[in-house]
Specification:
Blueprint (H helix, E strand, L loop, with lengths): L22 E3 L8 E5 L1 H13 L3 E5 L2 E5 L2 E3 L3 E5 L3 E5 L15 E6 L2 E7 L2 E3 L2 H13 L7 E2 L2 E2 L5 E6 L2 E6 L2 E3 L6 E4 L2 E6 L2 E4 L8 E4 L2 E6 L2 E4 L4 E5 L6 E7 L2 E4 L4 E7 L2 E24 L4 E23 L10 E13 L25 E4 L6 E13 L14 H5 L22 E18 L8 E12 L2 E3 L9 E4 L2 E5 L2
Parallel strand pairs: 1-3, 2-4, 3-6, 4-7, 5-8, 6-9, 7-10, 8-13, 9-14, 10-15, 13-16, 14-17, 15-18, 16-19, 17-20, 18-21, 19-22, 20-23, 21-24, 22-25, 23-26, 24-26, 25-26, 26-27, 27-28, 27-29, 28-30, 29-31, 30-31, 31-32, 31-33, 32-34, 32-35
Antiparallel strand pairs: 11-12
């Protein structure tokens, strides 16, 4: 039987605050606030000038400042006073679409001590920008892969900082990017606080992407996006996204609320995700996935509240782009969580809804799914309440608990990791497969209508302990709510 595990989060995050430096008014450099004058060169001249002078803040006051791509340099902060808006050009040729890194409105590369602060707005005008790019691709002027008639390679992001150190982004609103909205890639010592991301302008509008970064605090922010709201990625197999704290945020999404992945080449270590809220979200409240050979270790989630979301928890090992590497997931704790799942589509009515996919199926359970011989290990779930609608219809979609039924569930190692990918699953509360050392305690599962399925199915699970479990389901007094298959050392306590 498994031993009790103590997961220690060695998470010490050092964020360097910028020393007080001189302020420079944007107007000093001939930067116009009329919303029609293209200020790209003027803003870049101001940034370069302040950088050469040793650093300071470039301050924008009330007005609309039109620009293409600008690049922050070391020791420079852009400060937006309330009423100031940086507006992205809708001409695709005003962006660094042929540069060495991802195209974006505001970029930085290997800079230190930089920031975006204030109470102003950065508006990418992403829908119009994406349409002008599409027009140029369709006319044959630019080459770009088109997926579902969407440009795939050249759409500018809102903010893209690469390999930067000591970064502060606070107070501002970022909206309407043509692609991912706010991206930090291989950055160190990153503080994101009290920002608003509101971007439902086009497809693939990830709210905040944190890619292979170290020492990160994301706090007190609101993210409303048409793709994953808070997303951690690992693109480099030699890097890790590690020492990350996510606290006191609210997320709304037409995809996942909080997600690890999808690309997970290196991996994630030492995360604390505390006191966050997810609502009106199409996919999972939290997804932790490693489909590409990466390592996931030491993830602590506490006080996650999810309302009107398509799924609660999805943990997944896959084998999609492994390139000879073996992915792993160990030491995951999720506690003090509350989740309500509706019977309707949670993001219905949005301009860019999540797709109706992976049907037929009834409401999917929380799932923890490894691969044969690649076990997810040391998972603790405690003090959790999940409410589902129940009333699953076996004549619409059916998956029984006989050996042939359970064996028929495909492994799908190369598939995109999505909670609904297996279609109908045989449980309404938790489906657990290829897992070692699982602790579930003080968990209440409520089905508001009668279910044909048991609450929990364990398949190839070794070392599992259940205690203080409650199953609320109409007309189910004599129903066996836990079904085990090809499993060992499963302890069911009262």
């Amino acid at each position: 039987m498994m031993k009790n595990l103590l997961i220690v989060i060695p998470l010490t995050i050092f964020i360097c605050f910028h020393a007080q430096a001189e302020d420079y008014k944007a107007s000093m450099f001939g930067i116009k606030s009329n919303g029609t004058t293209l200020n790209t060169n003027s803003i870049q001249k101001a940034i370069d000038f302040i950088h050469e002078k040793g650093g300071g803040r470039l301050v924008f006051y009330v007005g609309r400042y039109l620009t293409g791509t600008i690049q922050l340099k070391s020791n420079v902060t852009i400060h937006l006073e309330e009423g100031a808006t940086i507006v992205g050009s809708t001409n695709i040729y005003d962006y660094n679409i042929n540069g060495p890194h991802f195209s974006s409105l505001i970029s930085a590369y290997k800079a230190e001590n930089i920031g975006l602060t204030g109470k102003g707005v950065i508006d990418g005008q992403g829908r119009d920008l994406a349409y002008t790019l599409l027009d140029q691709v369709q006319k044959g002027v630019l080459k770009d892969e088109l997926a579902n008639d969407r440009p795939a390679l050249r759409r500018p992001k809102g903010i893209y900082f690469r390999e930067c150190k000591n970064v502060e982004v606070s107070g501002i609103m970022v909206k309407n990017a043509a692609e991912w909205v706010v991206v930090f890639d291989q950055c160190e010592n990153l503080k994101i606080d009290k920002i608003t991301v509101d971007s439902k302008a086009f497809w693939n509008n990830d709210g905040i992407d944190i890619v292979d970064c170290k020492n990160v605090v994301l706090s007190n922010s609101f993210i409303d996006a048409s793709d994953d709201a808070i997303c951690f990625k690992s693109h480099d197999p030699t890097k890790l996204c590690e020492n990350v704290e996510v606290r006191n945020n609210v997320a709304r999404s037409s995809a996942n609320g909080i997600k690890f992945g999808t690309v997970t080449s290196g991996g994630y270590k030492n995360f604390k995700i505390v006191n966050n809220k997810v609502y009106d979200t199409f996919r999972s409240a939290i997804t932790i996935a490693t489909p590409d050979g990466g390592v996931i270790d030491n993830i602590f989630v506490d006080s996650l509240y999810a309302y009107n979301t398509g799924n609660s928890i999805y943990l997944r090992i896959g084998a999609r782009w492994n390139k000879g590497r073996t992915g792993s997931m160990n030491n995951i704790t999720i506690q003090n969580m509350y989740c309500e799942i509706p019977n309707s589509k949670p993001d219905a009515g949005r301009e860019y809804e999540g797709p109706i996919e992976d049907l037929p199926r009834n409401i999917s359970p929380a799932s923890i799914v490894g691969l044969p011989g690649q076990y997810i290990s040391n998972v603790t779930l405690r003090n959790i309440q999940i409410v589902v609608p129940g009333n699953s219809n076996p004549t619409y979609a059916y998956r029984g608990i006989k050996p042939a039924d359970l064996d028929s569930i495909p492994e799908m190692p190369a598939a995109y990791p999505e909670y609904s990918q297996f279609k109908e699953l045989p449980a309404w509360g938790f489906y657990v497969r290829h897992v070692k050392n699982l602790t579930i305690e003080n968990v209440t599962l409520t089905a508001q209508g009668k279910e044909y399925r048991p609450a929990i199915v364990l398949d190839d699970v070794h070392g599992a302990s259940f205690s203080q479990m409650k199953y609320n389901e109409p007309e189910s007094n004599k129903k066996k709510q836990v079904h085990t298959y090809k499993s060992s050392e499963v302890l069911l306590k009262k």
